[in-house]
Amino acid sequence: VIVYKMHNIVIIVATGVCHTDLYHLFEGMHKDGFPSVLGHEGAGIVESVGPGVTEFQPGDKVIPLFISQCRECRFCKNPKTNQASGRHAMMASADSRFTCKGKKVLQFMGTSTFSQYTVMNQIAIAKIDPTAPLDKVCLLGCGICTGFGAAVNTAKVEPGSTCAVFGLGAVGLAAVMGCKSAGAKRIFAVDINPDKFEKAKVFGATDFVNPKDHDKPISQVLAEMTNGGVDYSLECVGNVTVMRSALESCVKGWGVSVLVGWTDLYDVATRPIQLIAGRTWKGSLFGGFKSKDGVPQMVKAYLDKKVKLDEFITHNMTLGQVNDAIELMKHGKWAMKTFFFLLLTVSDGFK
Description:
The chain is α/β, with parallel strands linked by helices. The chain has 11 helices and 15 strands.
């Protein structure tokens, strides 16, 4: 095994299946993005450390990060962003430590958690509480932080406000949870699948709207239900048409709409008057959390029962069933993220 300078070898214990994995596999399909090892929402244990590693030691529980935090670059030093000057949110970086039969295999989003082992730079790993259950907190590696943070960090939802969350997958449900945590008075859950509404209640949704039940634009429906529009809207689908609907569902003057769902296939557009009238349109990557700082904080919030994680899990599956897990998510059968649990070389005492 090659141990790279400033890198750690991490045993992956558990990982979630995120829609971004499917996006790369079935939608983005960039010709230079394969072959790659998918997965970016995992948790594990440091197996060994390379030369120059100062922050970690074997046995540490960690969560791999697809956004690094070096704490030294222009972006890391700026409190206005969680992005970094190096790799972030790249579908399949050419800077990979994986090989198969002597040929390079790309490391998806710099993490590749659909694997028993991965190799990570120390600036892209978060050390977490040693008591945290890895088969739960792995979900904080992407989806839950993305949705929750979009509400509390990016939108900055205020107590007593009215919110609308478009799309009730794991990210959308986490956004609902974030709105609830921030003190929103009314939270509209918007989705075309009514089976998801009951689960949304668990996370704090107060109202449920299915666009298919109306013969007018959803923005008009929400405007009529809220005396002019919601204070905050969050688009958690990754669909440019829904992004426009979310913006236009906001009240003029101060409404804030946040793009959360990942896509880079089409342009997004609206009429200029929507913004001239005082609405704000902004994006959120990983919920605005500075990764190495924010993820341990979210783990603590879970341990303190301030953030839900168990309720997101619908399935426990093995790595050998990964294709079945992807098919479940691909066909949208379940309200939340499909989850699978890797029982590889890690003993029960570490989980």
